[in-house]
Specification:
about 950 residues; Serine Threonine Protein Phosphatase 5, Tetratricopeptide repeat; 14-stranded antiparallel beta barrel; two-stranded antiparallel ribbon; about 50% helix; TPR repeat; Outer membrane protein, YaiO family; repeat; Ycf3/AcsC/BcsC/TPR_MFPF; Beta-barrel_YaiO
Length: about 950
């Protein structure tokens, strides 16, 4: 059967089904941050302080354990076989089996769970996990009796019934499968997975009836009969390729049938794989069978078919996409992306691969938690909160550390693994994971110590031996590295990573011996090309390092390879520049600066080295030094595009967006195809809040590079709302004999730029049978990522009871983390009120402290009042803000201070609170309540309502 593009689309639909069923969900999050130095009753702030945190969880398809509360610290890391157990405690066995299944190690899971089941044969949770593990391995016949036994114990067990649905569906017992879906949906109507299965089963029943009718009614169709196809299917699913017999006419299925094949029914209707057809045709059939195995959960069989297909046809895109689907399913998004990129490089018009690439890019974007990075840039706090590590179990710390390491947040991964190790210092798994993290950070000595400790606990730990071998290889200790590799391979001969490393080591040893034979000294002057073994080896090492850098992984490995290459050709300026860049990527800025200087000593005109020094200053936020260096380059290279792009990048970092736009325009006038200039232009316009204009620039970039991930991400950014309307109203009940008050106001805010907000407010107040109107104008500005300031002026024309003029000023800034609690910040508010008989001044410094990953903030303020005679009186305010769940925001507080009333300061104690609810992203309603008690004066109970609309 030839592999046509139409078939590819059919299988790509199958691929998307496989991906969707893996339980990876994506969600978006919004974030808003504003100055928090304002008083609780300040109305001019254009954006209320709140956050919406994204919560995206990868749920195991079949659920999680019910009755066991078992830590995760004993779980083996991905790719590592579990060591033999000394302790056969059923809970530990269950936990290990559960973790192995979650990681896709089904055979290991079955081994552990069968031991647990022998100790506790009537435990439904163990049976459930065992059945799911057999399902994952594709052993449907073994899973079926386990699920049926489980249903005898727990008749309404949804996961057991779901498993039987899939088994009956795979065995073509469609009516039985349909029956189980009805039972499940009666118990849980919102089960989306079963709804989808039920739809597919019902379609399959209808399709089968149509097919049988078509086969009986039409003698023109030259396709095999139903029974023939079922017979073929027995061989089609068989691993023995040569047993499949050719079936005449199997390539001639009618179009109406071919176009409506679902994943399971293609399994029954696919043509036989034949051994007497061209290799590429055979490879296409193998790739298709691989997708079928994936739908059955037989990942290992699918992988084998894809590998065999690529062996016959190395450029077969369908097989490459199949391997990428497995990697995607397993969460290795970067490896999947690399494989899909390879397909696109060969077939740029392949829309299937491009669509899949977009999905992978979205997964990578989510895994890197871009929303948290933005939060870090604004608040100065790290991606992952490690403040509550003391409250986490070893298993939780291990899991968080593993996720951070996979997302390449190595500093955070290190912190979590170290915290886990403090709780359980003899855990070999944690030691190895910490060692791998330290390798990525370039701390080879610390990594070596952790691997060595792990081997003292578990001498056969493969990843620990692999880590030590890699360190020895990077340090040039080739004989030692080879011995470690060979020892590890004797325990795990099929380990591809060890095999690949051993080949690199042996090649390096051979090259070293060849260099020694030729009397090489490490200089590159002994010849060129094939006559110079040093140069050949250096180029090979540099090529390896470049591939690692391109993948965005393991810069420490790339650094080691570049250093090895430089030891062979120490005067190679290109290698020095690449080493400097890799050091910069690892934030080793001082060392990178020295490497760039060394390159410039050898070649003073090496522009990339000079640009590297600009980046070193820029990435350390030393804008003055970066400006000095870029200005020097502009004098020497006034027309160079790379220099101009660096100049614009510096303006962007300094928030000088208009200047950046000028530079980008200059670049585009000379080269309208410069992708980075179009992207930079759009970013600069977004900095000026010209979002719609920015989209036009991003569209220009997409014309140049339609599949560029950075461009697609920017185009998807929402158009931000620049206007905000706030309406508030309060009603005050006063103690007799005073009449009640009515007050309210309307505020309109406009965001002038990314860092500046202008607000105007009209306030109306009715007190003591008199009316006052207030007109207020305020401006708030963000000076640095965590530093805000504001200035506001108020005028009251009549001033019957309010101050005639009011001037407010203040701001807020982060100080730093207070231990493991959260971010400590400082606030300052000042106010001057002009009455007919003098001026009352208020100075209020304060502190704020965040808790629970910024879900709660506590404020403490010291209120200092100076009356018309400059007499000082003190007071304080305590306030707590929290949003325990998304969309809801609570505020409660207490203050004790002096309130000015004409020329009198009245002691006032206030309890206040409010609640707000975000109806949508752009509409918020709120209510507040406060109670004021005054000494020798009236008391007041205040009710308030407010509404906020963004547009």
């Amino acid at each position: 059967m030839a592999c046509h593009r139409g078939d590819d689309k059919l299988f790509f639909r199958l691929l998307i089904t496989i991906i969707s069923s893996s339980g990876v969900y994506f969600t978006a999050s919004a974030f808003a941050q504003v100055p928090s130095g304002a008083q609780a009753n300040d109305k001019f702030w254009p954006v209320r302080n709140h956050q919406k945190l994204a919560d995206a969880k990868s749920m195991a398809r079949a659920g999680k354990p019910l009755n066991f509360d078992i830590p995760l610290e004993k779980a083996s890391p991905p790719g590592v076989k579990s060591r033999s157990l000394i302790n056969s405690d059923v809970k530990v066995l269950f936990e290990q089996g559960y973790q192995a299944r979650q990681q896709g190690h089904y055979k290991e899971a079955i081994e552990k769970l069968e031991k647990a089941s022998a100790l506790s044969p009537d435990n439904p949770d163990i049976l459930r996990e065992l059945g799911l593990s057999f399902m994952g391995l594709g052993e449907l016949d073994k899973a079926e009796p386990i699920f049926r036994q489980l249903l005898e114990m727990v008749p309404d067990d949804i996961e057991a019934k779901t498993g039987l649905v899939k088994i009956d569906y795979a065995h073509n017992n469609l009516e039985e499968a349909k029956h189980y879906t009805e039972e499940i949906l009666a118990l849980k109507p919102d089960n989306e997975e079963v709804k989808s299965l039920q739809t597919e089963i019902l379609n399959a029943i209808v399709f089968q009836k149509k097919l049988e009718h078509t086969t009986r009614a039409s003698s023109v169709i030259r396709s095999p009969s139903i029974n023939d196809l079922k017979s073929i299917n027995l061989h089609f699913g068989n691993k023995d390729y040569d047993k499949v017999e050719k079936n005449a006419g199997s390539d001639n299925l009618p179009d109406t049938i071919s176009e409506n094949l679902t994943s399971n029914y293609f399994l029954r209707l696919s043509a036989a794989i034949r051994s007497n057809v061209p290799d590429r045709s055979v490879a296409g059939d193998l790739a298709k069978r691989g997708f079928i195995f994936l739908t059955m959960g037989k990942v290992e069989e699918a992988q084998a078919d894809f590998e065999k297909a690529l062996g016959l046809a190395p450029t077969l895109s369908l097989a490459q996409l199949g391997k990428a689907a497995i990697l995607y399913w397993q969460g290795d998004f970067f490896a999947a992306k690399e494989m899909v990129d390879h397909v696109i490089a060969i077939e740029p018009e392949n829309s299937i691969a491009r669509d899949f690439k977009f999905r992978i890019d979205a997964a990578i974007k989510f895994s890197q938690t871009e929303d948290k990075i933005k939060n870090e840039n604004l608040s100065g706090e790290p991606l992952s909160d490690v403040s509550d590590n003391e409250q986490k179990t070893v298993g939780q710390l291990y899991e968080i550390g593993s996720n951070e390491r996979k997302a390449q947040h190595f500093d955070l991964a290190k912190q979590h693994f170290e915290a886990a190790l403090a709780l359980e210092p003899d855990n070999a798994d944690i030691l190895v994971q910490l060692g791998l993290t330290l390798l990525a950070l370039g701390d080879l000595d610390a990594a070596k110590e952790n691997f060595s400790r792990a081997l003292m606990i578990a001498p056969d730990y493969i990843d620990a031996n692999l880590g030590l071998a890699r360190i020895a290889y990077w340090k040039g200790e080739l004989d030692k590295a080879k011995a470690l590799c060979e020892m590890a391979l004797s325990q795990s001969p099929d380990n591809e990573e060890l095999t690949s490393l051993l080949k690199d080591i042996e090649r390096a040893i051979a090259s070293k011996n060849k260099i020694a034979k030729h009397g090489g000294t490490g200089n590159s002057s002994n010849g060129t090309g094939k006559d110079n073994p040093q140069l050949v080896e250096s180029n090979h090492l540099a090529q390896q390092a470049a591939q690692i850098v391109a993948s965005g992984k393991n810069f420490a490995h790339a650094e080691a390879l570049y250093r090895q290459a430089l030891s062979l050709t120490p005067q190679n300026v290109d290698l020095l520049i690449k080493l400097g860049n890799v050091l910069s990527f690892q934030k080793k800025f001082a060392e990178a600066d020295k490497i760039f200087d060394l390159a410039l000593e050898i070649s003073p005109d090496a522009l990339e080295a000079s640009l590297g020094k600009v980046n070193v200053a820029l990435w350390q936020n030393d804008y003055a030094l970066a400006r000095h260096r870029i200005d020097a380059l502009l004098l020497r290279h006034p027309e160079n595009e790379e220099v101009a792009l660096s100049d614009a990048s510096l303006y962007m970092a300094e928030h000088q967006y208009k200047r950046a736009i000028t530079v980008y325009n200059r670049i585009l006038e000379k080269n309208s195809k410069n992708l980075q200039a179009w992207l930079g232009m759009g970013d600069a316009k977004r900095g000026l809040l010209r979002d719609r204009e920015a989209v036009n620039d991003y569209d220009q970039a997409r014309i140049i590079a339609p599949d560029n991930r950075e461009t697609l991400e920017r185009i998807q950014r929402p158009i931000r709302k620049r206007w905000r309307l706030d309406i508030d109203s309060t009603y005050s009940e006063l103690t007799a004999p005073y009449k009640n008050w009515r007050e309210g106001g309307v505020a309109l805010s406009y965001q002038l730029s990314e860092a500046t907000i202008l607000t105007g407010r009209l306030g109306l107040s009715n007190r003591f049978n008199m009316d006052d109107q207030q007109f207020e104008l305020a401006i708030a500005h963000q000076f640095r990522p965590a530093v805000w300031g504001y200035l506001a002026g108020v005028v009251t024309p009549d001033a019957d009871f309010l101050a005639r003029y009011i001037l407010r000023a203040g701001g807020s800034s982060n100080i730093g983390r207070l231990g493991k609690v959260g971010m400590l910040g400082a606030t300052l508010d000042t106010k001057s009120e002009w009455y007919d008989n003098g001026v009352v001044k208020t100075i209020t410094p304060g502190l704020r402290q965040t808790f629970f990953k910024d879900r709660m903030t506590i404020f403490a303020q010291w209120i200092n009042v100076f009356d018309q005679k400059n007499k000082h009186s003190g007071g304080y305010l305590l306030r707590a803000e929290t949003n325990p769940v998304d969309r809801f925001h609570f505020n409660i507080g207490y203050s004790s201070t002096l309130e000015s009333s004409g020329d009198v300061l009245i002691p006032t104690k206030t309890i206040f609170g409010n609640i707000a609810f975000d109806i949508t992203e752009d509409l918020t309603i709120g209510a507040n309540l406060s109670k004021e008690q005054r000494t020798n004066a009236y008391n007041r109970l205040v009710y308030g309502l407010n509404l906020t609309r963004r547009f």
